[in-house]
Amino acid sequence: MKKTSLLLILCLLGIFLYAQKHPPKVKPADPPAPYGPVPTPAQVEWQKMEMNLFCHFGPNTFTGLEWGEGTETEDIFNPTALDCNQWVSVAKNAGFQGIILTAKHHDGFCLWPNPQSRHTVRQSAWRNGKGDVLKELSEACKRGGVKFGIYISPWDRNAPTYGTEKYNKVFLKTLRHAHKHYGPIFEQWFDGANGEGPNGKRQVYDWKRFNAQTLKLQPNAVIFSDVGPGCRWVGNEEGTCGRTCWSRLDIEGLEPGKNAPSQDTLNAGNYNGACWIPAETDVSIRPGWFWRESEHPKSVQELLRIYYNSVGRNSLLLLNVPPDNRGLIPAEDSLRLMEFRAALDSIFAHDLAKDVKTICVSNFRRIHKPDQTGNCYSWRNTVFPEPYCGFSLIDGDDNTYWCADDTITNGWVEIQFYEPKTFNRVMLQEYIPLGQRVERFHVEVEDDNGNWRTIASETTIGYKRIVLTETVTTKKVRIVIDKSRACIVLNRVGLFMDNVLLEGN
Ligand code: FUL
Questions:
Q1: Is the CB of 49 inside a 6 Å radius of any atom of ligand 1?
Q2: Which of 348, 377, 395 is the last residue of a domain?
Q3: 76 contacts 62 by C-beta, under 8 angstroms
Q4: CB atoms within 10 A of CB 130
Q5: Each residue's pLDDT tens digit, 280-332
Q6: What's the pTM?
């Protein structure tokens, strides 16, 4: 061989080895553009709370009424052993992130010394008129690291001005007092009920000002009502969100109460809704909203069913657990909540999707050339997984996601295990800061003969979707996104075995 050829070969080899060690710097693939309306950061944080406690407490706790008349004597409110620390520890131990208290229900009685009213704890004999439930609960929440929210009913059967323009000012001052003294408030709950006041008149509520002032004083508060603007009523009090549930809603010209969207619309959202207003599922652990000695909490199976029908369907669960006439959450309710927690842990503590041999996707926005890693990720991979690849679905990170190329609106993710796994729950999550996209998907498993079988077909995903399937044992499972409204952006796939509630849909 000539000297020059040898030199050339050596040069080329040198270049090759250098290139191997120093691959050209590649620009990371761009993230996708958001699609449609998207949540505010406060709405994202709110949705991640997943489960909050609702506490209905007030004169009705002592009279057994659901809607107090507003004429009850203040002395009727007299809890003998109020301890908000107990409420907070029950919430925490059961895995609830926030507590919302009925600071004022329709009877108008205020659980704090509201200067706008003469029907409050201050006028009661409880603690000689020095008690303040809002103060105790907001402080207990702060100590316990639980978020605090308030329900203040605009309908007031006691306020003498109710039914006149003056009442809107009284209500604004009432709100301001609560928001200024007991914050931070993570959620302001506005009931749409609009009955008659003491003078037989109904109020025309000034919702615009109620909302604007709330956000001025509590900018991070998510405002609940039939039409948001922070989150919406799910349309029923049974604990059931729509199987199809868009976090989008049209609210132009609509209001809470009788001018609200239909209950079906609230349940499913609007496909093309202009605003991001996710569903909140409020339901009581007991038959009534307020405590009554004769009533008892729902079973663990019922609570689990509610969980699947709310958190598992792109909604937040607001579970009402009413304190009793001592001012404590009754033992049977707290015990039930602990059993509920234990059931959730037994199901969701172990995610089988984390034990994969490989996780492959049909397409992802990649940095490297296709032949470098293929579309699969396995634990034996030496190349660090790229952002947007299938590994993002099982990495336990809220901020990473599998993302397809801009034009790809259908595709699949396939998980293969080393050994067959048995499961009956499939959890999927979209990365909602970029909008809600998936419109239709199905789940397939492979049998021993290599044949694929569909075990579930569903519509929306949103923040979280838990699909109940028959119990299957398989080495391969595939989630097929049949239709996404823009390129697929999925944050998580999880597979679980529920031995508590065995039946499927
Ligand atoms: C309803 C009220 O009328 C009930 O008493 C309860 O507070 C429930 C959460 O909202 O509209």
A1: no
A2: 348
A3: yes
A4: 9
A5: 999 999 999 999 999 999 999 999 999 999 999 999 999 999 999 999 999 99
A6: 0.94
